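Ex. 9. Protein: DUF2415 domain-containing protein.
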Amino acid sequence: MGGNRAFPHSQYSNATTDYASKLERNSVVNAYEFVNPTPQRHQQRTSWNHWQLRDVVLCPSSRPELYSIYRCNVDRYDTRKHQSTRVLGDLTFDPVSMAVGGDYIVVGGQRAELAVGRLSEPSETTVVRVGGSINNFVALDRQPSGTTAAGVRRRLRDSAAFTDDGVTSLNITGAQDVPRLLVCNNDHTVRLLSLPTLNLLTELRFPTAVNYASVSPDGAKMCVVGDSNQVFLFHKNGDTFEKMATMEASNDASFSCDWSQTSEQFAVGSQDGYVTVWDIRTHNKMVQLETFQHGRSRGACRNVKFSPSGSIDLLAFSEHTGYVNIVDTRDFAHRQVLCVATGDETAETAAQSWAGSPGTGSQDLQITGLRFAPNSSALFVGLEQSILEYTVDRVGRHSFSSSAII
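Predicted C-alpha cells for DUF2415 domain-containing protein:
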C-alpha cells in the first residue's frame, strides 16, 4: 500500500504514490532529519484515561513548561529545571482532555465532568457536569470579534444548506470580552461557554459524536471531526458559526485536527491510519498520508499538529504506539519517522524494525500526546513513563534549496 496519496495543486487528482517494498519506502522517508532523532528525556509520567484520546501534553506558552495529565492529576513540568509541580490533584474523575490558557485551566472527564480552575488559585477549582457524555476535547477559544449585544437570543442560519447533514447552530448570547471555552462531547455537540461562569453562548449539534475541534490561528474558521469520516468546516465570527462545507477524510472516525499557521491548510488524523490535508482556498485535498505502521490498530493516527510559528513548515502526527511521523509541508514528499521506543531513530534501525515486526515488543510504547513548542523549536512526545523533547533543526528549515518555492 502507498504511503502518500498525493493530490497535485494543479489537478488534485487521485494519483497514489507506491513504494516497491517496506524497506524501500522506509529508506525514502528517513533520508531527512527535521528534528534531532536523539531526544532529551524528561522524567515526567503521563497517562491516557481513554484509549482513543491521546492529547494530554500541552505547551501553552513561551515559558519552558509543560502541562500533562497523570491519572487523576494535572502536573506542570519545568523543562529547564526538570521540576514537576502538581497543579490539580486527586480529581474525582479520570480526566481525558485539558486546556490551559491565561490564568485558566480546564479539564474534561468521561462522564461529562468539567473542572475549571485558575492557575493562580488551583485550590478553588469548580467541578460541574456539561453535556451528556464524554468531554472528548476542551480548548480556550481565541478572543471573539464581531459579536452582538448581550442578551440577544436567536437561531442562526437555520436553512436547508445548514441542516442537510444534521448540523444545527443555536446562538444564545453574545456577551463581549469574556473568555470562551470550546467543549466537544460524545452527545454530538460542540458548545461554546463563557468563563468562569460556564454560561452557554453557542451550541452546535452534529449527526455524530464529536471528538475534536480546531479553530484556525486567524480565528475565522473551525474544523470539527468525530465518530464518522465526515469533516465539518465552519466560518467563525465571534460566537457565531456558519457551515462552509462537509468533507470526507478517509474511511474511519477521526480524533484530531489542526490548522497551519497561515490558516490556509488543515489536517485531519483518522483511526484507519491516514492523515488528510486540505487547502482551505479550494476545499480540495492536497495529500493523504499513511502512518508508518498502517491500519487502525497500532498505526491509528491519534494526534496531528502543524508547527505553529516561523518558517519551519512541518506537520507531525503520532500513531497509537511506537512512532511519530514528521512531514515537510512545503511539498509533502519528505518524511522523518521517529521510533519513540529507542529515542535514537535512524534509517537503519527503522529498516530493521520494518524487516522484523514493527509494533511489537519495545515498539508498543503508548503515545499519550504530541505538541510543538510555540516557537517551533522543539517537538514534545508524551509517553507513559516520560516526555521526550526533540530539537527542531530550525537552521536547516530556514535554508531553502535553489529550487524551493517560498
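Check your answer against this statement. DSSP finds four helices and 32 strands in the chain.
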